[in-house]
Design a protein that fits this description.
CATH topology of the largest domain: Rossmann fold
Oligomer: single chain
Helix content: 25-40%
CATH superfamily of the largest domain: Glycogen Phosphorylase B
Strand content: 5-15%
Shape: globular
Distance between the termini: 24 Å
Order of helices and strands: HEHEHEHHEHEHEHEHEHEHEHEEHHEEH
Number of strands: 14
Structural class: alpha/beta
CATH architecture of the largest domain: 3-Layer(aba) Sandwich
């Protein structure tokens, strides 16, 4: 019955994606029909990355290597990125022309979509490099299509993309790299650089640390980021509040700072209200992406879910603890030892046989509750990881695993069949076959 529920959900999602693909594809064809192509400039190359902030920071070391090579060759680089964080590109990639695309607006506002697609056609680039994995149809592939130049990308879409959609969309690319299943995104980033022939490989970014908001410069604070891109991926706020209370009791001179989007203000307020007066500063909804990055960069350590905070922290070398679910375990977290970052996060999870379900959860839960693999993570396991980080006992942040015994256990040794650490091991580039548990769900590489 459980597997039937999962299959029906996946079939319905594929049907929805097929309808979207046909509708948006027809609209894009009409919009671009008759639009004159600007003569291609052989030295103008477009780099496309439209993912979320965390994905951008995860890819940043590889982006630095890619752009450095292009600029040394004398190419003009046009960076087409997510408008939410495109301002950061001007700091991280000086000398690049930037074009920001609003993801949600491109889907919902057809006038905006028409302007953007026609504007991209007018860029006159000679090549498009699209390192994102997996690819989205109605936004990412639509942007590649609009530029109308030979493109390089991965032959990998979300599992809920219909085969016909992928078959047609693949024609937009003059060269497709084969899928690299079951590995961490850093492995794919390195593979893309090799395919392009980048000699620099990944470059661990040495980024400036802008002053944080709220008069926090020079203050000792821990940053709590209880939100995330999906509600079902959020650890219960009561547990986050308990960790915050224990942290403040353990270090009386420490301040707790809350960060999040405007939509997460109510969530952050609940946690702030549960903490001692004067020991918490709630900045949820009060910072832009650059301000959020500054908060992470100056924090003593960071606690968050499977979200951007951990990815920003690893780039700046800030200790972090990430509460991790099993939907696409190993894709973004945990980080492998080979990742070109200054400090890997400590990841804590509750091992379940259904890891790898790609968030097509077999358990029916209410919309306002986390999925069981996240909700069941024990406070004591997370607190154990936090204590080790506070004590400086984990300078390079190894992977931790909550197996339900009440404390985080460092991952070492051979994984058991169907065990979550097996996925972590494979995500580090070990492609040896891994036995799956009898109840394990279908694997997907997307979010």
């Amino acid at each position: 019955m459980i597997r039937l529920w999962q299959r029906l959900r996946l079939v319905w999602r594929k049907f929805e994606r097929m309808v979207e693909f046909l509708a948006y594809g027809l609209f894009d064809s009409l919009v671009l029909f008759g639009v004159s192509r600007v003569p291609r400039n052989s030295k103008r190359v477009a780099v496309v990355n439209l993912k979320l902030l965390g994905d951008y920071f995860l890819w940043l070391p590889f982006g630095k290597g890619l752009v450095a090579q292009l600029q040394e060759q004398g190419d003009e680089v046009v960076f087409v990125g997510n408008a939410a964080w495109i301002a950061l590109v001007e700091q991280h990639f000086p000398g690049c022309e930037t074009v920001g695309v609003e993801w949600k607006r491109l889907i919902r506002d057809f006038r905006y979509r028409m302007r953007v697609l026609r504007g991209l056609r007018a860029l006159g680039v000679s090549q498009v490099l699209h390192p994102s994995y997996p690819r989205d149809a109605i936004v990412e592939d639509a942007v590649v299509r609009a530029m109308g130049a030979p493109a390089l990308g991965f032959d990998a879409g979300f599992p809920d993309r219909p085969k016909l959609d992928m078959r047609i969309s693949n024609r937009l690319y003059s060269r497709l790299l084969p899928p690299i299943p079951g590995v961490h995104q850093s492995v794919r980033g390195a593979g893309f650089l090799r395919a392009v022939g980048v000699a620099f490989a990944a470059i661990a970014p040495d980024l400036p640390r802008p002053d944080p908001a709220g008069g926090l410069r020079g203050q000792r604070y821990v940053l709590l980021v209880p939100g995330g891109s999906r509600g079902f991926k959020l650890w219960p706020w009561e547990k986050t509040a308990e960790i915050a209370r224990r942290t403040l009791n353990r270090d009386p001179g420490l301040l707790c700072v809350m960060a999040g989007t405007p939509a997460e203000q109510a969530l952050c307020r609940r946690i702030a209200d549960a903490l001692p007066e004067g020991r918490c500063l709630d900045l949820a909804g009060k910072t832009d992406p650059a301000g959020f990055v500054a908060l992470v960069a100056h924090a003593r350590w960071v606690l968050g879910n499977d979200s951007a905070a951990g990815h920003v922290a690893v780039v700046y070398g800030v200790p972090s603890v990430v509460v991790l679910g099993g939907g696409n375990f190993g894709r973004c977290y945990p980080y492998p030892a080979s990742a070109p970052v200054k400090r890997r996060p400590v990841c804590v999870w509750k091992n379940m046989p259904c890891f790898g379900c790609d968030w097509v959860c077999r358990y029916r839960t209410s919309p306002d509750r986390a999925y069981p693999c996240i909700e069941r993570i024990d406070v004591e396991a997370v607190w154990g990881a936090v204590v080790r980080v506070m004590d400086g006992a984990i300078p390079k942040a190894p992977v931790a695993d909550d197996r339900g015994g009440g404390s985080g256990v460092l991952f070492s040794g051979p994984p058991a069949p169907g065990d979550a650490p097996a996925l972590a091991k494979r995500a580090q580039g070990n492609d040896a076959p891994i036995a799956k548990g009898p109840q394990e769900g279908p694997h997907r590489e997307g979010e």
